[in-house]
Amino acid sequence: MEEDMQQQGWSPNDDKSPFYNWHLIHEDEWRRIARGFPYSVRVLNHYKWNNEAKWSEKARTTTLDKAQGVMQALAQHGKQDKSACWCVMEYDCSGDQVRERPVLWHPNQEHVLATLRQAGLLKSS
What's the mean pLDDT when you consider all of the chain? Predict the structure, then answer.
C-alpha cells in the first residue's frame, strides 16, 4: 500500500483518498493551480476526543524546497503537539487529469501512516 501511495496518486477531488483535503475547487481549476503551484503543505488534525482526522492545507509552493521549508517551520512552531502529522503533496498534470501524491512526511512516514490507520483513513496492509 505504501509503495502504491508513492506512485499511483489520487485526484484532488477523491474524497476516498487518505490525504483528501476538503475544498470547493473544480477539476479545471485544479489543473491551473497545480501547474503554477505543484506542492501543497498539509497538516493532519487528529481529534482524539472523537478519533476523527482531517487534512488542512497550510501552503502552496512552486518548489519542493520551499514546501519543505514551510513544512519544517510550521512543524517546529507546533512541536509541542507530539501527535501532529505533516505532509507535502506533489501534483502531476497528465492530460486532463490532476493527480496528487505525498512526497515528504513529518515527523516521518511511519508516524503519519500509523495516525491515518488509527483514524480509519487508511486501511491496514
Answer: 88
The residue written with cell numbers 501534483 in the block is: 91
20: closest CA among 59, 62, 55, 72? 55
The answer to whether residues 37 and 61 touch, using CB atoms and an 8 Å cutoff, is: yes
Q: What is the rounded distance in angstroms from the CA atom of residue 91 to the CA atom of residue 9?
A: 9
Whether 56 shows a pLDDT value over 90: the answer reads: yes
Within 10 angstroms of residue 63's Cβ, the number of other Cβ atoms is: 11
Express each pLDDT in 107-119 by its tens digit. 999 999 998 998 8
What is the four-CA torsion angle of 93, 16, 40, 98, rounded to 10 degrees? 10
